[in-house]
Amino acid sequence: MPKGLLGRKVGMTQVYNADGVCVPVTVIEAGPCVVLQVRTPERDGYSAIQVGFDDKPRRLASRAERGHVAAIGSQREKTRQAAGVQLLEKPECEPKRYVREFRTEGDTTEYAVGQSLTVATFAECKAVDVVGIVKGRGFTGAIKRHGFSGLCASHGVKKAHRSLGSTGQRQDPGRVFKNQKMPGHYGTNQVTIRNLDLVKVDEANNLLLVYGAVPGHNGAYVVVRETNKK
Known about the structure:
The protein is mostly beta strands and 230 residues long. It is built from four helices and twelve strands, in the order βββαβααββββαββββ.
């Protein structure tokens, strides 16, 4: 199975590596994550484990979220038991705010529902991929959104220095093509930063120190997995 954990971006700092060079790192609080479900090809059509991170107060969790992690004696459970349906095993833990799945290949017997995964998973790992949601920047212009250079600032250019310029042609085709780079909503999309060096694994504090920057604001949820990039 590919190594993976859920976590939270703490912020950036700098540390000295083994060569005595000061390098910028992103601190990620990864885990502990609880295995909520184990997917099997016989029942679900694919192999995976579903993990959850960050406890959610029960008063804020919906009944479906509580029933996902613990037996709450719902009418649906009683009806299915009376019909002879084998119910899925529950981890008997608190509801989780962040839930994701990690696909596996082959046997998943080494993982059990309710098992806790920690940063010790990455003890022998050298590089990771980090998946996160980039910061939202609202409605922005073409220069900030697409990196346009803008118009020149020489004599005769009238207050159009940050305009995007022409967007179409003449009578033919007489319209603006789709996917034209224009002002619009910028950010809040999922981005994967691949093959980042794993500088340090702090098992005592559940921290990963990753070389470079990762997407998202401080406190944002991220997915950390062992890279498959050679």
